[in-house]
Design a protein that fits this description.
Blueprint: E1 9-15, H1 20-23, E2 31-36, H2 39-43, E3 48-59, E4 64-75, E5 78-90, E6 103-117, E7 121-137, E8 146-166, E9 177-197, E10 202-226, E11 230-254, E12 260-264, E13 271-286, E14 292-307, H3 311-317, E15 327-328, E16 333-342, E17 347-358, H4 362-366, E18 369-371, E19 381-384, E20 392-404, E21 408-420, E22 423-428, E23 435-441, E24 444-459, E25 468-481, E26 486-487, E27 495-503, E28 509-518, E29 539-549, E30 554-561, H5 571-574, E31 595-603
Parallel strand pairs: 19-23
Antiparallel strand pairs: 1-2, 3-4, 3-31, 4-5, 5-6, 6-7, 7-8, 8-9, 9-10, 10-11, 11-12, 11-13, 13-14, 14-15, 14-16, 16-17, 17-20, 18-19, 20-21, 21-24, 22-23, 24-25, 25-26, 25-27, 27-28, 28-29, 29-30, 30-31
Length: 604
């Protein structure tokens, strides 16, 4: 579920290891952190000046147009910024013999921030609105009784927040910095599925929705403590949130004689979710040259799910004995620690350990679904609750080397991750003809791997040749289910990405050629326990990007992706089969062939 437009972000950070000690539940394998555009990010920390940027991009891969407008103004004491993004397009093209289902979509996103700066505190208010609509003609399953299927979807999110933070130059007795923020957010996804069915000559409409309303409070303080041998950068924080989760599932059949039948299949017990996290982290610098940095952290979490009484839901689930369950987490403390040594100004090496958790969601605990037999299939199944469901847990270890020299930047890391209690939908023993499923914790998993990156700045083949930047990154990992001694299907084949980058001496133009090689996924690397999953071949893809600064205010970007028109699959999408698909490596799952984009940007 994506409820934001990346055009509203000014910064994205990736944490690739578990980090529940800072981010709490769900940070079991990593964190993607995004920061939206602010006045300071556009006109500077002094909040003085104004700016305006407008960029329009066309992409052939889905025949889409995106326009991004960004503006900001400030006088030093108060400032405002606004970013507005509009997108409209169609289905993403593939390179297979079976085209994707026809689709049209449009989306709008607005983020506006207002900043007021006093002598000691800066206040920032945020209005964040996102809306997306799509209409899909689901040709791929218009078989059997389904004469035509139209799927309409609307996704929306509204977030309002206010934040107060002390200014860095202000001194306090007990802390160097205070931060407090309050946010209110509503998000929803509503879908309408329209079917023209041949059995009983009826028109069927399914109205399905999922909504979450959330109120959150966050606060933190930081204090720097100096002693003769140690320097501490101490941070203490608290996060508190309360959310209400609910869903709707209404089936309306219009019969040939004009009669209308309604069936309310409410598929989840409405639930209240409460989260409280308290954390403390420190960055301790020590050593004769202050060349060691020890960073311990610890977080305590309380997580609770309370299902609410709902007559419609209970009536729908009573005949199959579905009972909503409450939940409280058992794993309270999540520690982490890292140690870094600066060998010299350009070289350091490090070791880190992180504990991660992911608590079951309200849907996993109290989501109910019944698929009755139909005239087109004799299969029927029930998804039931599991009152014994527990949190997923992970322990991540990593060691690495970082080198930053005059013209070369090198990074090497080796990692080993242990996971326990993965939550998955598992078939359970059941009497009768119904298949019974429930979410369950499914044993232990181990993953290990290595990552390598290298960059060379201003490389010249000969002094008479222009300078280039070169770079590459390599990633390889292997994982298995310990209890069953089977490979882990979520592991991607190894990948090597390299690039050559050139910029003119006057910085008016530049170009980059990127090469991506993805290894094959072999049959013996795939767990076939849940049905046939086919292997994929390796692939080599070339992408070319170029830019030209036309004038002081105008810039033109463009690129051609998959220059050689390579036909290939990504394992992350090819391994998703089942449902109405014939197999995992379906022609619809091929990645796009040669495609291009162009972007025109004006800044003032």
């Amino acid at each position: 579920r994506i409820y934001f437009d990346p055009a509203t972000l000014s910064q994205i950070e990736l944490f690739k290891s578990a980090n529940s000690s800072l981010y709490g539940t769900n940070a079991m394998g990593g964190v993607v952190s995004g920061r939206t555009v602010s006045p300071a990010g556009v006109i500077g920390q002094d909040l003085v000046g104004s700016g305006l940027v407008n960029a329009t991009t066309y992409a052939s891969v889905n025949d889409s147009i995106n326009n991004r407008l960004l503006t900001a103004w400030g006088d030093g004491k108060k400032a405002v910024s606004l970013v507005y993004s509009f997108r409209a397009g169609h289905e993403r093209q593939n390179h297979g013999t079976i085209p994707p289902d026809p689709q049209s979509f449009d989306a709008e996103a607005v983020v506006s921030k207002f900043t007021v700066r006093t002598e000691i505190i800066e206040f920032t208010g945020t209005i964040d609105i996102f809306e997306q609509e799509s209409v899909t003609n689901v040709n791929s399953i218009e078989v059997g009784n389904n004469r035509s299927i139209i799927h309409e979807s609307q996704r929306s999110r509204e977030r309002f927040s206010i934040r107060a933070q002390t200014l860095p130059e202000v001194e306090f007795a007990y802390a160097d910095y205070y931060d407090l923020s309050l946010s209110i957010q509503d998000s929803s996804q509503e879908t309408i599925n329209l079917q023209d069915r041949s059995d009983n000559n009826l028109l069927r409409r399914r109205d399905i929705s999922f909504k979450t309303s959330l109120v959150g409070l966050e606060t933190s303080l930081m204090k720097k403590i100096d002693s003769e041998n140690f320097t501490h950068d101490l941070q203490i924080g608290m996060e508190l949130s309360s959310s209400a989760v609910e869903s709707k599932y209404l089936v309306t059949d219009t019969l040939q004689n004009g009669n209308i039948l309604e069936d309310n299949r409410k598929s989840m017990a409405p639930s209240d979710v409460s989260e409280l996290g308290i954390y403390i982290l420190d960055s301790i610098t020590f050593g004769e040259e202050q060349d060691w940095v020890l960073s311990p952290s610890l977080r305590f979490d309380f997580y609770e799910v309370k299902p609410q009484s709902n007559q419609v839901f209970m009536a729908n689930s009573a005949n199959v004995g579905f009972n909503p369950v409450g939940y409280e987490n058992e794993v309270w403390g999540t520690p982490a620690i890292s140690l870094l040594h600066r060998f010299n100004e350009g070289i350091n090496y490090y070791f880190s350990y992180n504990r991660g958790i992911r608590n079951p969601t309200a849907e996993e605990l109290n989501g109910f679904f019944e698929h009755p037999p139909t005239s087109s299939t004799t299969s029927s199944f029930i998804i039931d609750a599991n009152p014994n469901l527990q949190e997923e847990r992970s322990d991540s270890f990593e060691m690495g080397l970082q080198v930053n020299l005059a013209k070369d930047v090198l990074g090497v890391s080796i990692f080993k991750n242990f996971y326990d209690g993965f939550i998955d939908l598992i078939k359970q023993p059941s009497p009768g003809v119904l298949d019974l499923y429930s979410n369950d914790n499914v044993g232990k998993v181990e993953i290990h791997g290595v990552e390598l990156s290298w960059k060379r700045n201003e490389w010249k083949l000969d002094e008479s040749f222009p300078a280039f930047d070169l770079g590459l990154s390599f990633s390889w990992s292997k994982g298995k289910k310990i209890d069953e001694n089977l490979p882990l299907n979520s592991i991607e084949p190894w990948k090597l990405v390299s690039y050559v980058d050139w910029v003119s001496e006057d910085k008016s133009k530049g170009t980059r050629l990127t090469t991506t090689y993805r290894s094959e996924k072999k049959y013996d690397q795939i767990d076939q326990s849940f049905g046939e999953v086919l292997p994929i071949d390796d692939s080599l893809v070339f992408d070319l990007f170029a830019w030209l600064r036309i004038s002081e205010h105008w810039k033109l970007n463009g690129g051609i992706n998959n220059i050689t028109n390579e036909k290939y699959f990504l394992w992350s999408s090819a391994r998703r089969g089942g449902g109405h698909s014939t197999n995992s490596v379906d022609e619809k799952n091929t990645q796009p062939g040669t495609n291009a984009f162009v972007k025109l940007e004006a800044s003032f």
